[in-house]
Amino acid sequence: MGAVKTKRMPRAVREQQMLDAAVQIFGQRGYIAASMDDIAELAGVSKPLVYLYLNSKDDLFTACIRREAQALFAAVRAGVRRELPADRQLWDGLLAFFTHTARHPDGWSVLHLQARTHGEVFAAEVTVVRAGIVAFVTQLIAEAARDALARSADRAPAGGASVDPPLPERDVAGLAEALVGAAESLADWANATPSVTARQAAATLMNFAWTGLGELMAGRRWSPPSA
């Protein structure tokens, strides 16, 4: 009886399998300690095949960074429904961010810890996608500010006191940077604290960003929608 031929796996599928293994190894062991032997073994392929598909350890790490960055950005964008009020858009974006980073802790480690500390080339890859997220958040904040300004104008009595001027672009940009930076730090903390869920992390930052520290100290909080 002749040997049974197994169906050859498509290159794209095999490559994703290698990237899955690489993200796990890089995320858990770090870039320096990760070895191509361990990645190949976890992926269930030979080391020469990893080199054939992805050229080198540096190229493999870069491919991991790009894939995880694109997945994170896509998750945040998909989570935001632009037809909803500004606070719901911000909440949905934060929840999508923390849900993704909680579900993919190795990918988050690759992006936020490993890529930033192992050379300018890797750090530059993260900088590009982070700039995209900051730009997206900047747009959300700018739209929220315009909505708030419009509501203030509607409430103002005819011929009465003037409405506050729009939030300056510099302030909008600064708020977006602060919010993204806070989300990154909070994701690290939440992933290292098993008792903290993605929803709890999102609610913490939502209250800090939307309600404000002063209001929180007075016992007033923003209530997340029901799950």
From TrEMBL:
It comes from the Bacteria. GO terms for molecular function: DNA-binding transcription factor activity; transcription cis-regulatory region binding. Residues 35-54 bind DNA. One of its GO terms (biological process) is negative regulation of DNA-templated transcription. This is TetR/AcrR family transcriptional regulator. Keywords: DNA-binding, Transcription, Transcription regulation. Coiled coil: none annotated. InterPro entries: Homeodomain-like_sf (IPR009057), HTH-type_TetR-like_transc_reg (IPR050109), HTH_TetR (IPR001647). Residues 12-72 form the HTH tetR-type domain.
